[in-house]
Amino acid sequence: MVMVLLLSLNSPAFAEFFPEDPSKGERLLSSKGCVKCHALNGEGSQFGPDLVKINLGDTPLDMAARLWNHTPSMILGMEAARMIKPALTNREFADILAYFYLIKFSDTRGNPVRGRTVFAEKGCHLCHPIAGKGRRGEPGLDEFPRNTSPIFLTKGIWNHTLDMVAHMAKIGMKWPTFMETEMMDLLEYIKANAKGAEEPEFFKPGNPKEGKRVFDTKGCNQCHSLRAERAKEGVDLGKMVPIFRATLTQIASTMWNKGSDFSQDGSGTVRYSEVHIKRDGGPSGLSLLPPVH
Question: Which of 73, 118, 222, 286 is deepest in the core (most CB within 10 A)?
Answer without folding.
Answer: 118
